[in-house]
Write a structure and sequence with these properties.
The chain has 189 residues and is an alpha/beta fold. Helices cover 52% and strands 21% of the residues. The protein has 7 helices and 6 strands, in the order ββαββαααααβαβ. The chain has helices at 30-49, 75-89, 95-109, 115-128, 132-143, 147-162, 172-177, and strands at residues 7-10, 16-24, 54-59, 62-71, 165-170, 184-187. A 6-stranded mixed beta sheet has the order 3-4-2-5-1-6. A hairpin with a 2-residue loop joins strand 3 and strand 4 (62-71). Helix 1 (30-49) packs across helix 2 and helix 2 (75-89) runs antiparallel to helix 6. The longest helix has 20 residues, at 30-49. The chain is globular, with a radius of gyration of 18 Å. It comes from Candidatus Faecalibacterium intestinavium. One of its GO terms (biological process) is protein processing. Residues 30-134 form the Presequence protease mitochondrial-type C-terminal domain.
C-alpha cells in the first residue's frame, strides 16, 4: 500500500469539510464510543462553539473517522479532534450516562423500519449471513459497555488518531490558513 497522504482540496464556496481517518478493527462497543464522542464532545466543541453545521465520529469496518461539514474552520476543528480523547477519558460516567449512551447507540443500530425497509433489511441480513445469534452478540457487546471501558477506549483513541490521515475540502483562505496540516493541496475551483 502507498503511504497515507494528508490532502486538501480548494473548492468554491465559503464552507469546509474535514475528515480525520485511521485504521481500526471494528468492534460493536466502539459504536458507543462514537456516540459519546459525537454527542458529548464534538457536538459542543466543533458545532456549538466552532460553528460547524455538523460533526461526528463514525466507526466502520477497518476504519474510524471524525468529520465536520459546513465548517467555518479547518485548523480549529482538527485541534478540537485532537483534544477529544483526553476530554472523554477525563470525565466521570454515571449509570444514567451509560444508559443514555447505550440507548442512543441502539437507536441507530436497530431503528424502527417501515415494511419496505424491513424487507430490504431482511434481504441484507440473508445475503450477508447475519443471524439472530450474531445480532444477539452485537447487542450484548453494546450493552456491556462500562464506564471504565469507555474511559480506557477514549484514552487509547489518541494514539491511532495521531497517525490518522487528514482530508479537507474548503475555501482557499481556510486551506491556506491550515496548509501546514497537509502534504498535498490541489485546487478544484
Amino acid at each position: 500500500m502507498t503511504p497515507p497522504v494528508n490532502e486538501a482540496f480548494v473548492i468554491q464556496g465559503g464552507v469546509n469539510y474535514d475528515v480525520l481517518a485511521w485504521p481500526m478493527a471494528f468492534a460493536q462497543e466502539r459504536r458507543v464510543l462514537a456516540q459519546v464522542m459525537s454527542y458529548e464532545y464534538l457536538w459542543h466543541a466543533v458545532r456549538e462553539v466552532g460553528g460547524a453545521y455538523g460533526t461526528g465520529m463514525l466507526p466502520g469496518s477497518g476504519v474510524e473517522l471524525l468529520y465536520t461539514y459546513r465548517d467555518p474552520h479547518i485548523r480549529g476543528s482538527y485541534e478540537n479532534f485532537a483534544k477529544g480523547p483526553a476530554e472523554l477519558a477525563g470525565r466521570e460516567y454515571t449509570g444514567s450516562d451509560l444508559n443514555e449512551f447505550i440507548v442512543g447507540t441502539m437507536a441507530r443500530f436497530d431503528p424502527p423500519r417501515k415494511p419496505r425497509q424491513q424487507a430490504l433489511e431482511t434481504d441484507r441480513r440473508w445475503f450477508c449471513g447475519v443471524t439472530d445469534q450474531l445480532d444477539a452478540a452485537d447487542r450484548a457487546a453494546i450493552c456491556g459497555v462500562t464506564a471504565q471501558w469507555l474511559k480506557t477506549a477514549a484514552a487509547e483513541l489518541a494514539r491511532p488518531m495521531a497517525g490518522g490521515v487528514r482530508c479537507a475540502f474548503g475555501s482557499r483562505e481556510a486551506i491556506e490558513g491550515a496548509k501546514d496540516l497537509f502534504d498535498v493541496i490541489e485546487s478544484l475551483e
